[in-house]
Amino acid sequence: MELYRSHVLICGGTGCTSSGSDKVADKFDSELKKHDLDKEVKVVRTGCFGLCEVGPIVVVYPEGAFYSRITEEDVKLIVEEHLMKGRIVKDLLYDDSVKDDIIKSLSEVEFYKKQMRVALKGCGLIDPEDIDEYIAIDGYRALAKAVTEMTPEQVIDTLKESGLRGRGGAGFPTGLKWSFAAKAEGDEKYVICNADEGDPGAFMDRSILEGDPHAIIEAMTIAGYCIDASQGFIYVRAEYPIAVKRLNIAINQAKEYGLLGKNIFDSGFDFDLEVRLGAGAFVCGEETALISSIEGKRGEPTPKPPFPANEGVFGKPTLINNVETFANIPQILLNGPEWFTKIGTEKSKGTKVFALGGKINNTGLVEVPMGTTLREIVYEVGGGIPNGKKFKAAQTGGPSGGCIPASNLDVPIDYESLAQVGSMMGSGGLIIMDEDNCMVDIAKFFLQFTVDESCGKCPPCRIGTKRMLEILEKITSGNGTMEDIDNLEILANNIKQSALCGLGQTAPNPVLSTLTYFRDEYIAHVKDKKCPAGVCTNLLSYEIIEDKCRGCGLCARSCPVTAISGEKKKPYKIDQDKCIKCGACMEKCPFGAIIRK
Amino acid sequence: MKSIKELEEIRNRTLEKVNLRKDRQTGIRVVVGMATCGIAAGARPVLHAFMEEISKRKLQDVIVTQTGCIGVCRLEPIVEVFVPGEEKVTYVEMTPEKVARVVAEHIVNGRVVKEFTIGSYE
Ligand SMILES: Cc1cc2nc3c(=O)[nH]c(=O)nc-3n(C[C@H](O)[C@H](O)[C@H](O)COP(=O)(O)O)c2cc1C
Ligand code: SF4
Ligand code: SF4
Ligand code: SF4
Ligand code: FES
Ligand code: FES
Predict the structure, then answer these.
(1) Hey, is the C-beta of B5 within 8 angstroms of any chain A C-beta?
(2) CA-to-CA distance for A42 and B17, rounded, in angstroms?
(3) Distance separating alpha carbons of residues B11 and A257, to the nearest angstrom
């Protein structure tokens, strides 16, 4: 075997790839060759490290130097200084990773301190296109153990003992779901991995597929063994090209090694996998719609029961789990259920991956033990709110979830606690909002998403959410009445109870939770005709403060509709009837004389 | 794949390679001077010899890294060994042949190989 003295890990996740990590990796290849180092230094393209915000990320081992925002031009310096002469290029290190001249190891960087990587274990560590590297970190050992040493019942019992619950949203106990599918009668059965992930702002599942695809293949094969299925489908969005490519590479490698196919580990068990591409409709993430889509029909939900465990794809018993759920399974079998139950809270075991976004310093991918508080995630992992602004709310669970206000910052993040404060875990989008966000506008944003994505099959969702959106639009444009607020609430509760599938049943949640915690903002829009956060255009006005205005005339020149007039050296005025509220004047005024109200 | 043994073989074969990517705060550090004069004097084969010797013996908690100019170019190749809690030891005029002894005596058994250290040269 070749021994490399240094490894250069370059993030090949979607975030870093879009900021140019491909070119950086190519440049490393060529620079290393040029200096005759290509036999000494190994270049590895990994999955997401988490800190996508400061990508492209490059980590050099054995020193563990964590470089951020690396461009093609920086590569020469890293090769010539660090890799040739052993001098770490301090200027390129991630800010938080140097202190008092000592390079902190990755686990000491604030961003990683509270994190624990279970589902993301291989992400950012191994080359996702090299099955041997997955095997080196104990990959496929859980499968080997399951099929050669355990009965399907024993595997399922292990999952039950671990307390693992589905990470796709609802949090149904995974072991129990597997036992239903195992018990179901059928000559053929199927295993499905739900990798649709349509929540706005979420990319946890995609990152796992990109960074550690074999973990999903291994877990699905174990599932096949447990429920006696010989075929599996991974349902991925076509707009996730890197994930699709790596999955296909991984499936082929697993087939070559005989880890998929006939007679796996000489146990007589056969299992095969196929990738199925989804067109990217949010409702196709709902399990019954997803199943219709795999069958080649329109992706529309059907009533439950029958549940997929009894009647799924092609009417056969089908086990369907989320990507992150699957990613936990090999770890549980390897380390034992006791290990898993020690992580997390009483009823929510293990860790949860979140895509942290919005008004937060470290946007990116994080994995924390269940029960970590929202405050810890925002201020320690996330590094706080940018520009010294105040935290206002966190939106969890995507369009199915709700907003958590600052008074609940100490809520532990687990299934029950989130439900208690009127939100939910969902699949794991975590969007942070500051004082500049208008909560009515946020509710409108999520409802707009639902209206666009509703499949239209049932009236409460098709018509009801549209009506809700109309009311919200009326309120944000300054024409709302107090009655509208009441109607909004009544409508929301009706839709929740009468919609056919989870999309419609949860669609009112963002509205309901903002009504609970930020009702005063709704009232301000209606009664005072004001948007307290200064977001809703119709309710804003730009005004010139006479005392501050020096009469320079800059604002008047920047106004696209000549709404500003005045005489040099005298206070200018804005004609409110003409003003279209574009904000251009406020940006231009050198004396801060223009305010938005 | 027919057996766990096969899987284990692939694992062991690849482990060394992935093992380098660990976050280590403890353990022994071997630092090889690799500035221009170090390389000219033959630091690279010395570094490789350390890597090989350490991997052969499957020493998990030892890392081999490099550094720039140490300051005494005439005694290159120079290697410093840092054992936690002990003073650093500087070996000079290292060769791949000397490496095996340093690994066996110093790194594994904790006995400094005095005759290779800077003290016995100065
Ligand atoms: C509208 C809607 C969209 C959904 N989207 C997803 C999704 O993108 N990914 C996912 O895993 N589950 C999604 N779900 C949940 C699935 O229906 C299902 O509960 C889940 O895949 C089960 O896996 P788990 O038990 O491992 O969580 C969605 C549900 C609804 C109602
Ligand atoms: S609730 Fe909405 S998405 Fe679900 S079936 Fe009804 S119309 Fe379709
Ligand atoms: S906000 Fe725009 S339209 Fe209104 S006065 Fe200023 S520049 Fe003119
Ligand atoms: S740019 Fe500012 S200071 Fe100048 S005229 Fe306009 S409001 Fe007055
Ligand atoms: S995609 Fe590179 S750190 Fe997330
Ligand atoms: S360059 Fe080697 S000690 Fe100075």
Answers:
(1) no
(2) 9
(3) 13
Rounded to 10 deg, the angle between the A213-227 and A204-211 helix axes is: 100
Cross-chain residue pair A105–B16, CB shorter than 8 Å: no
CA dist A149 → A135, A143, A267, A327, A333 (Å)? 19, 10, 10, 21, 12
Return d(Cα A12, Cα A123) in angstroms, integer: 10
A131: nearest Cα among B11, B3, B19: B11
The percent of residues in chain A predicted with pLDDT above 70, rounded, is 98
Q: Compute CA A107 distance to the chain's CA centroid, rounded to the nearest angstrom.
A: 22
Residue among A366, A62, A548 at smallest CA distance from B25: A62
Q: ipTM above 0.85?
A: no
The CA distance from A507 to A194, in Å, is: 20
* Block residue for tokens 């390079």: A103
Residue in the structure block whose two tokens are 């529309």? A300
Close Cβ partners of B17 (under 8 Å, ≥ 6 residues apart): A1, A3, A4, A42, A133, A136
Contact A371, A413 (CB under 8 A): yes
A510 vs A488: CA distance, rounded Å: 12
The minimum CA-CA distance between A467 and chain B, rounded to whole Å, is 54
Are A163 and A340 spatial neighbours (Cβ–Cβ below 8 Å)? yes
3-state DSSP assignment of residue A126 = coil
Which residue matches tokens 């040739």? A84
- Window 73-112 of B: residues touching A by CB (8 A cutoff) are none
**What sign does the CA torsion over A206, A211, A213, A218 have?**
negative
Over residues A46-82, the pLDDT tens digits come to: 999 999 989 999 999 988 889 999 999 999 999 999 9
**Which of A203, A190, A213, A4 has the alpha carbon at shortest distance from A126?**
A213
Phi/psi of residue A166, nearest 5 degrees = -55, 135
